[in-house]
Amino acid sequence: MSNQQNKKNVQIICNKRALDLTEELPGRQEENHAKRQCTEGLFWPDSDDESIFSNAKLEDLLSGRKDELFGTQVQTSSNMMQSELPDDGLFGDTSFADTSLKLEPAGTRAAADHDQQIDLSGDADANEVFKKINLNDLSVAEMEDIFHGAEDFSEPLMQNTQLFLDAVAFKVLRTPEKLNQSSTKGDESMSFISKSVLEGIVQGTQYETCEELRNRSILDPVNWESQAFADFERDNQERDNFPSKGEFYGLPDKVKRMILEHKGIKSLYEWQDECLNLPAIRQRKNLIYALPTSGGKTLVAEILMLRELLCRERNVLFILPYVSIVQEKVSAMSPFAIDLDFIVEEYTAGKGKCPPQPRRKRRSLFIASIEKGAVLMDSLIDVQRPHEIGLVVVDELHLIGERGRGATLEAFLTKVMFLNANIQIVGMSATIGNLSEISSFLNADVYTRGFRPVELKEYIKCGSDLLEINAAGQTLDEIFVPSRSVNYPYSEAVKKADPDHLAGLISECAPEHCCLVFCPSRKNCENVALLLSRIVPKQKFFDHRRSEKIDLMDALDKMCGILSPVLAKTLPYGIAYHHSGLTTDERKYIETAYRFGVVTVICCTSTLAAGVNLPAKRVIIRAPYVGQEFMTLCKYKQMVGRAGRAGLGEAGESILIAQSKDNLQVGQMLFSPMDKALSSLDQQEAVGLQSLILSVIGLNLAECRRDLNRLVNSTLLSVQASTLEVAVDDIVLRILREMFKNKVLQVTEPLGKSKINCSEIITTQDVNQTSARPAGDRRLLIGQSTRFKLTNLGRAAFKAGIDYKRANAIHKELRHAQQQLILTNYSHLLYLIVCFNSNERGDELFPADASILFQVYTSLPPESQALFKQLGFTEAHAARLFKKQSVQGPLSLQLNRLYKVLILSDILDLLPLPNVATKYNVERGTLQHLISQSIAASSAIVRLCEELEEFWCYKPLFERILHKMDRCGTLELEPLMELPGVKINRAKQLYAAGFKSIEDLARIRPMLLVQSVEHMPLRVATEIVSAAKIILMKKLDHLEEETENLKVCLQSSSKD
């Protein structure tokens, strides 16, 4: 069969579609990949000769010192350059016959090894080039970090295939005869890696209702065959009364055209059509659907959300895990909102009004982080408006098992379920190992499908050997299939610097295709990026999209305020790093450049696997660690899932680099079941369950122990109680006792004139177990039907969204500060905000640097030193701080807090973020996180003070500081900074270009904005214009609502 026919068959199998979205558009022409003019449909050009940004002029500005910055440059073209100049890089003039990994029969392995080697026959001095590689500029610390910080890397080449197979032989495999016998019995042990890897994601299609999952024993064999629609019409179950408005899943045909226009999607995959016609969708039941990463889950969710907004005319709440993804989705949905006449609202940190403005004419899509989504729902319940929400969609549902945030998500979903307000819940995830338990918790049907639009080939690198993972194998030889050996002609120096052949593996793929390198730590990301920039084939990487890389560096310098020294060295070669130490803007520029092939290699941490949609042709896992912890199967699947996306070729490739010391753990990880999402409500002294109980009492969803037991028994914790070995009812009783003792709860019924001793709380169970009490010993009896409510402090804690212990602590700080509040500057208020987020040592996020703290303190004017003195910091303490150069002793808590206060003060004084980062030796991204954390704390303190009359004076003060910190701009720039993603540098740019208000931006066409503002990509311009229009739509809605209310008042008065 010809190669062309093979490719055609693969295309049919992998990209099978159920519904064609393409329509004949008037005047439509075939795409032309030649050099073309910038149009509204084009973000970045494909040609190397064109700029990323339409009018960037850095090349002209730097023409006098280009050689100094980037070395000798040659003319580029849209194809890979074949340079005539000598290359002093690692590989010289090298060529790669094939950029994909090949699986060859064992007999032809030697030939394959020879073919895969880099051809240096044309370079007579190749060996001399390798010998001259100079890595002396790498520091000892950098070299150690590149080697993962391990102690046993002195002999990295000791690792090989046999060592790995010997280590993973802990799994006793059986003969094919035994396998066949056990398979007829449904023996669970017959499955090997195929079962463990596919624990939560099945091959083919599976659809099970929550009732079937509840009745099926966990030991029953699962039928992995396609069975989704065999009994769709069983029992002729009545459909939901769905008001259809068109043929496209009930949506207007306009939606189909918009998906094609804005997303470039011509047709749906078969599974997407299948999922959108499930009984759960037709009957409006809760649904969980799970597919591998890159399967197209988000499009299904978006269609469901549009159906709810346009057809059922109810609001939608979309929960996303990270602020960056929330902002990205707000931007992506804005064009749909404008054309389809609904509102998109961002709910993150200080953004989003709670409760939201009620609207008669337009429906709202609330896109929120987990924490702010929970606050939004609480506010709607509090004002008796939860019915306005018709659909809740939760992305990355497996995060319900994460400590901290998982408890918040579980509590949120529990309340939505407990409300019984006809709110449908749809959850999606790629990695959940206990779908049946999550289904039981949400009372949801489950749809699973082992679908990927392109094939994923997974490899393990053992020394120089590459083993392909065959998940269907039954023996070690069948599971780990030898593919090839890599043999790059490294010099001795390069072998020591790059023992894992990263440069060679990357050069096989990049710069023609994109590559992600996952590293264990943030520092390792930077050092690996630096190393790669020094040893990859220089001319090949340097010439690729050169002018656009120059523009990218200029944009980072001007728009983000700084170009990182490491990025300045790596970006000329299309190599970058990506982690939380970079600011949001820096990460966004790098991500966008990567999507359009300007940056082709990103060294990143594991957060990129879950937080950002960046597909790659090849994914390399530098080491099987996330920080200091060994990675789980869930993390591994998230990372390798980034390899291979539709449009990036027929197959994606992932390579896990395994050192000999990690062989056993790598095997155990691969053979382990998918991570289970376990409730964390009972973790950390049950603070999650405390917060849930506090909120449901505050929202009047429960007013006695009977109500609480009914609610708590509907949590995931209750479903998993036997597995986790927890007694849920006992935990609830303990929490109630603590709440009464801390005066967070009080009994509703009058208890006579006698004063209650709240330190002696007993329950009806205690009465049965207690013998005679001393006479006169007063106790409070809490029966199953005893009604109680929150005290003022308890309600303040609930409104602030914090547990009562934190509320007690901040109440104490506020009351103490009230006696001698310093208002000559913002420092004292900032100190209270830092206290809100502080741990017991005050060193959360980062500890104080003693030398910097001393230098800044001594340079402060007397009025700014007043807070230090009030907290007990004297000249003697300052001298000790200078002498010991460490923050220790009784004032360590206060000093760590004051360090953050000094940072926030400089930020409020509009000192550029890069300058602040340099001054205090803190990463820019960490500072940005501190700002976001402080904004959320300010908002929570405002809500707390609203409930406590004694703190009436604080409310306007913290509202002002919240507004100032959220904007961090001057008065004239504040309107522009309402726009999502517009920071102070971009606001200054827009203001200087004549766009001084939201109205100015709403009137302009995106292309005109691109031409008027430097470094303004068309996509960003479109997002800004769309966001401006939505802000005006909100204002119009508000005015229309006020007008309608006034009309109603006038009409009623005239009737009277």
CATH superfamily of the largest domain: P-loop containing nucleotide triphosphate hydrolases
CATH architecture label name of the largest domain: 3-Layer(aba) Sandwich
Q: What is the straight-line distance between the termini? A: 87 Å
Gyration radius, to the nearest Å? 31 Å
The CATH topology label of the largest domain is: Rossmann fold
CATH class of the largest domain reads Alpha Beta
Quantity of strands, as a count: 24
Backbone structural class: alpha/beta
**Main beta sheet: strand number and arrangement?**
8 strands, mixed
Mean pLDDT: 77
- Categorize the overall geometry: globular
Number of helices: 49
What is the strand arrangement across the widest sheet? 2-10-4-9-8-5-7-6
Beta content: 5-15%
Q: What is the assembly state of the chains in this entry?
A: single chain
Give the helix level as a range of percent: 40-55%
* Tally of structural domains: 5
Unreliable residue stretches = 6-134, 147-157, 174-203, 217-238, 751-760, 767-777
Catalytic activity: ATP + H2O = ADP + phosphate + H(+)
Main location: nucleus
GO molecular function, one term: nucleic acid binding
Subcellular location: Nucleus
